């Protein structure tokens, strides 16, 4: 599939996916989300890809769902076509790790897309928000759910009800983003994190992703049991033997994803 609204570069085991609708500040429309979900599925099956980085432009990661596209839609249309449902499901189904590198605006669906990723690295220019309330609607792809889990009820209510933006410093303090770096260093920082992940055993990387995500779905007792059983199961891998032997022999581990 040839893409028009995203650019995908695969280099050194990392897929860099750039959102590319600069005229609309990377607003998410049907085409962009369907290209993105297709690209993510492609990354999952491409053995060369060990980590994915999603990035926007300097001014905007994404300024939300495309308002022009949605404006005249009826309830019947958005409900029956399940607007954005299948595409966003496909994005979160990817089992390889996904990092969002956010510079500038990450608003509405843009903030929600960033939160669909496994973690967010932000530039000091980043601004997060759920301003859908200003449009007479509300968040629809995670802004009341993932944001609440990330920053707690008080800030999630504040942002969703007032539509105010949260800057990078507040986002880091609140647990929405894992790191904040100067704008010029954003790409290096995100690629550096992706390279670190790409060096690990893909089996344990995917197991970590699955286990952390389960913590949002399960009661603690069940989550802890799931974690312990997956930990046990990693002893069936060659990479566990290699990783522990390498530590004791004081050398770098050579993981082979087995
Ligand atoms: N949709 C469509 N076009 C957009 C969007 C958007 N979300 N955001 C910006 N644009 C366009 C502008 O219309 C403008 O186009 P043009 O040059 O043709 O007039 C261009 O991008 C540049 O934007 P601005 O001139 O407004 O740039 P500023 O620097 O003045 O302002 C802002 C930047 C503050 C980001 C401003 O553009 C803004 O407020 N944008 C809208 C933010 C917003 O409300 N986002 C939420 C959208 S709704 C949503 O995301 C719902 C998601 C859930 C869907 C669930 C489905 C189930």
Automatic annotation (TrEMBL):
Keywords: Fatty acid metabolism, Lipid metabolism, Lyase. It catalyses: a (3S)-3-hydroxyacyl-CoA = a (2E)-enoyl-CoA + H2O; a 4-saturated-(3S)-3-hydroxyacyl-CoA = a (3E)-enoyl-CoA + H2O. It comes from the Bacteria. It holds the Pfam family ECH_1. GO terms for molecular function: enoyl-CoA hydratase activity. PROSITE patterns: ENOYL_COA_HYDRATASE (PS00166). InterPro entries: ClpP/crotonase-like_dom_sf, Enoyl-CoA_hyd/isom_CS, Enoyl-CoA_hydra/iso, Enoyl-CoA_hydra_C. GO terms for biological process: fatty acid beta-oxidation. Its EC number is 4.2.1.17. It is an enzyme of class 4 (lyase). Could possibly oxidize fatty acids using specific components. Belongs to the enoyl-CoA hydratase/isomerase family. NCBIfam families: PRK05862.1 (NF004517). This is enoyl-CoA hydratase.
């Amino acid at each position: 599939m040839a893409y028009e609204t995203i650019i995908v570069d695969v280099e050194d085991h990392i897929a860099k996916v750039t959102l590319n609708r600069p005229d609309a500040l990377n607003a998410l429309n049907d085409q962009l989300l369907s290209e993105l979900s297709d690209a993510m599925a492609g990354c999952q099956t491409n053995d060369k890809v060990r980590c994915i980085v999603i990035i926007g432009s300097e001014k905007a990661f994404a300024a939300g769902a495309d308002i022009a596209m949605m404006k005249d839609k009826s309830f019947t249309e958005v409900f029956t076509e399940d607007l954005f449902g299948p595409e966003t499901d496909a994005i979160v189904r990817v089992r390889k790790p996904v990092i969002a590198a956010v510079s500038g605006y990450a608003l509405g669906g843009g903030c929600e897309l960033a939160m669909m990723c496994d973690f967010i690295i932000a530039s000091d220019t980043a601004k997060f928000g759920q301003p859908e309330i200003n449009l007479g609607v509300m968040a629809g792809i995670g802004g009341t759910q993932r944001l609440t889990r990330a920053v707690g009820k008080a800030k999630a209510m504040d942002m969703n009800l007032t539509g105010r933006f949260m800057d990078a410093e507040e986002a880091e303090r609140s647990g929405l983003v894992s790191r904040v770096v100067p704008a010029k260093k954003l790409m290096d920082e995100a690629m550096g994190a992706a390279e670190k992940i790409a060096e690990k055993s893909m089996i344990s990387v995917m197991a970590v992703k699955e286990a952390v995500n389960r913590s949002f779905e399960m009661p603690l007792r069940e989550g802890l049991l799931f974690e312990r059983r997956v930990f046990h199961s990693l002893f069936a891998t060659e990479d566990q033997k290699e990783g522990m032997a390498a530590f004791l022999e004081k050398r770098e581990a050579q993981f082979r994803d087995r």
